[in-house]
Amino acid sequence: MKNISILGSTGSIGRQTLEVAAANPEKLKVRALAAHKSDELLEQQIKQFEPDIAVLTDKDAAKRLADRYHGKTEILAGEEGLLTAATYEGADTVLGSMVGYAGLRPTLAAIACGKNIALANKETLVAAGSIVMEAVRKHGVSLTPVDSEHSAIFQSLRGGTQKEVKRLIITASGGPFRGKKRSELKNVTLAQCLNHPNWSMGQKVTLDSSTLANKGLEVMEAHWLFDMPYDKIAVVVHPQSIVHSLVEFCDGSVIAQLGVPDMRLPIQFALSWPERYNYSFEQLDLVAAGNLTFEAPDLEAFPSLKIAIDCGKAGGTLPCAFNAANEEAVYAFLAGKIKYLDIPYITATVTAQHNNVLRPQLEDIEATDAWARAAAKGVIAKL
């Protein structure tokens, strides 16, 4: 039995993680839940899974929940409560599915307490990959990826040794605008951006998928997860989202992991590893899936991918600056303050102005995140 703490339980990944837990009650026990401010949904989750503790980082939402709920689960609030959930002694595994940079500190706290990590929060490694991976090594914990692409690589790498790897090949669906030229993207709407052809995800990740910024973040994440240089990481567009990623070896063999586009599969693998549990959800039918196609990404129409990879190659605090600027740009677009093509313009402008710190400590990462957000807001205000 694995005892799990879920950070971000009311988001898309968190909700699907709870579906996996419900399908495996003899193997997974939910001991702690944490969310931001969705008190009604968290209350439903508490009633179904009866965790020891539950947290809302929004203190007003936590008070509303505490006033209504009178069961055995302890209700906690704020960042202190979040850190309690991340380090809870009753849990041995922490699934981190908080959105954005906010996942960094609780992930580091969980690692420091010896928790194994199932990581869905790619921004944690993008912003502070060297710090996080050093902490993983220092404390002797496992870090298993939840993203479908990284789960696929994690599994496919079992086909050979590190020195035999020629390339990691990360697949991208291409999002809702695959095949569009840059000139056709000037006036796209939020509704169009969120209409992903294959995946059901939260707004931030779905919007990042439409710009291909998400794929740039995944390249940076893969660099840290698999200790792989950037010149050995490639991106291909695969519209069907059946092949989740591939590993090419020195002898020409290419090993891939396939499955339906359903996040419950990589979530369950991350929680079950090194075992595999029986899977209770939809299975892949290759005949029904039909043709599988691949194409190169269009970096002119979707420059966010190249901007992100260039920042990753530069290293230091530049990936953190990219991530912070992209988050602020995405939130501005979601709020209707900027146009779609302003998103890569903002990240390019902010990262070009950044004074890179090549060997950052945690305080450098935090300073960069704050600076880049302020810089991005300054660019947004002038648009």
UniProtKB/TrEMBL annotation:
Signal peptide: none annotated. GO terms for molecular function: 1-deoxy-D-xylulose-5-phosphate reductoisomerase activity; isomerase activity; manganese ion binding; NADPH binding. Keywords: Isomerase, Isoprene biosynthesis, Magnesium, Manganese, Metal-binding, NADP, Oxidoreductase. It is an enzyme of class 1 (oxidoreductase). Its cofactor is Mg(2+); Mn(2+). Residues 258-374 form the DXP reductoisomerase C-terminal domain. One of its GO terms (biological process) is isopentenyl diphosphate biosynthetic process, methylerythritol 4-phosphate pathway involved in terpenoid biosynthetic process. Pathway: Isoprenoid biosynthesis; isopentenyl diphosphate biosynthesis via DXP pathway; isopentenyl diphosphate from 1-deoxy-D-xylulose 5-phosphate: step 1/6. It catalyses: 2-C-methyl-D-erythritol 4-phosphate + NADP(+) = 1-deoxy-D-xylulose 5-phosphate + NADPH + H(+). It comes from the Bacteria. NCBIfam families: Dxr, PRK12464.1. Catalyzes the NADPH-dependent rearrangement and reduction of 1-deoxy-D-xylulose-5-phosphate (DXP) to 2-C-methyl-D-erythritol 4-phosphate (MEP). This is 1-deoxy-D-xylulose 5-phosphate reductoisomerase. It comes from Phascolarctobacterium succinatutens YIT 12067. The gene is dxr.
